[in-house]
Design a protein that fits this description.
The protein is mainly alpha-helical and 453 residues long. The chain has one domain (2-253, 330-446): Serine Threonine Protein Phosphatase 5, Tetratricopeptide repeat (Alpha Horseshoe), CATH 1.25.40. Helices cover 46% and strands 6% of the residues. β5 (308-310) and β6 form a beta hairpin.
């Protein structure tokens, strides 16, 4: 029966990938007898479709970020949409289906199938833990998809204009007759925060497996969301709640830098497992790590050899994914949560706590006996250090684009530069292109507004 639901779901996702934008997709109605899940186990089966929900995270934001560069020769081997995405072009930066939009909204559709159908299953004393886990899991997955969409297709969250800035389409039902419209940025964040908070109330502290959501993961995602909004009080609150449940760190001294991919998949830091299939531009054989970033690692910092492989010509590729291979880890892990806690403490003036958070993490990253704990630094210097360590620790996880937007919104004044064929491409701070162009087929079929240029 589980396979039947997964097969039917695949048909429905294909049918609705354009979000109900075109009526030709509405002519054939699904057979309700085989398409409607009617038990908690059916709904859990849909959520356990890992290859769709856990292993297809978007890569366009990381492709657009500044952790790497491409040679002219490698750029010329790419498909045209990737070339345009890499150089921050105004439009045509996505291929037609399948792309980041279809992957994100396929996840939203699956979670809405679950959330719509669980309403018909009574929550009782005997099924309450399972019922809550199913609903909470669907809410986490939908909220996470909404956040990914906002990071890619929206500008930074600035409270002063959030009620008028464009957000994303908030698909709240499996009904593909529902018209697609863009919410405001405030509505987008209000909805995903609401989803995550309800999920945190319903989920168990730790999951049956880290492929599934948990209370610790919901708290971690709440902290990430609030960090992206510049709300450091709430970021601190939820990062601390997440670490109260799971705070284990991997001692990098136990890893072998000679391995092609030194980090084991599902290692002890992973709170929730998600995978970004590596986009062509940032594959290990193409992407060269920014030289300033590489040189910022101290020789006794084990990340310098665990994260990077030499290309034999003075450039380096990234091999430090928590996936233990070429694909990129994009889930929630305790190292990210420690860094969010440290940054929030530093912004709020809790300098001793911020230094303790940072030192807890970094002592597991340096060669045994060589790390000198951070102490006696100014508030400004400490914040700069924490943000530098965040970049060094979390590169290639799909977080840098979010960070660039939020830091520039605070006055970071970070300008990105690419040089190809003697031509220089730049992305100034707070440029409208930080809201990447929505795929043109979605604009044409739905009528929603394109991001301004």
């Amino acid at each position: 029966m589980k396979q039947q639901y997964k097969f039917t779901l695949s048909i429905l996702i294909t049918t609705t990938l354009l979000l109900g934008a075109c009526t030709k997709y509405l002519d054939t109605k699904p057979n309700q007898a085989v398409s409607v899940p009617n038990s908690l186990s059916d709904l859990q089966s849909l959520l356990d479709t890992y290859y769709k929900l856990n292993n297809a995270d978007p890569g366009s934001s990381e492709t657009s970020a500044d952790n790497y560069y491409l040679s002219d020769a490698d750029w010329n081997t790419l498909a045209e949409p990737y070339r345009r995405l890499y150089t921050w072009q105004d439009d045509r930066v996505f291929s037609n289906y399948q792309n980041d939009w279809s992957n994100i909204y396929s996840t939203v559709f699956v979670t809405n199938v679950v959330l719509d159908n669980i309403k018909s299953i009574e929550r009782t004393a005997s099924n309450q833990p399972e019922w809550d886990n199913v609903k909470g899991s669907a809410l986490v997955m939908r909220a996470r998809a909404f956040l990914q969409a906002a990071i890619i297709w929206c500008g930074p969250y600035v409270p002063a204009n959030a009620e008028t800035a464009m957000g994303i389409p908030l698909r709240m039902s499996q009904d593909f007759n529902e018209k697609t419209t863009r919410s405001t940025l405030k509505q987008t964040y209000d909805q995903l925060l609401q989803d995550l908070k309800e999920a945190a109330d319903r989920l168990a502290s730790t999951p049956l497996h880290v492929m599934r959501p948990s209370k610790a993961a919901a708290f971690g995602l709440l902290a990430r969301t609030y960090l992206s909004m510049g709300n450091y009080d709430s970021c601190l609150l939820y990062a601390d709640k997440s670490l109260q449940i799971k705070s284990t760190l991997l001692n990098y001294n136990t890893l072998n830098a000679n391995n092609a991919f030194p980090f084991p998949q599902l290692n002890t830091e992973v709170v929730m497992e998600n995978v970004m299939p590596v986009p062509a531009p940032i594959s290990i054989n193409r992407a060269k790590i920014d030289s300033n970033l590489y040189n910022s690692y101290h020789p006794n910092d084990l990340r310098k050899t665990l994260f990077f492989k030499s290309n034999g010509n003075g450039t380096y590729g990234f091999k430090g994914s928590y996936e233990g291979g070429g694909n990129l880890f994009s889930g929630v892990a305790t190292d990210e949560v420690y860094l969010m806690l440290a940054e929030a403490n530093a912004k709020l003036g809790n300098l001793s706590a911020a230094m303790a958070d940072l030192n807890t993490l970094l002592q597991t990253r340096w060669r045994t006996g060589t790390y000198i704990p951070v102490s006696n630094v100014t508030a400004t210097a400490l914040l700069q250090l924490i943000r530098a360590e965040r970049r060094k620790e979390l590169l290639m996880r799909g977080l840098r684009w979010m960070d660039l937007k939020r830091l520039n919104a605070e006055g970071g004044n970070i300008t990105l530069t690419r040089i190809l064929g003697g031509q220089t491409y730049t992305l100034p701070p707070n440029d409208p292109r930080y809201a990447i162009a929505i795929p043109e087929e979605i604009i044409q079929l739905s009528g929603i507004s394109q991001n301004p240029r």
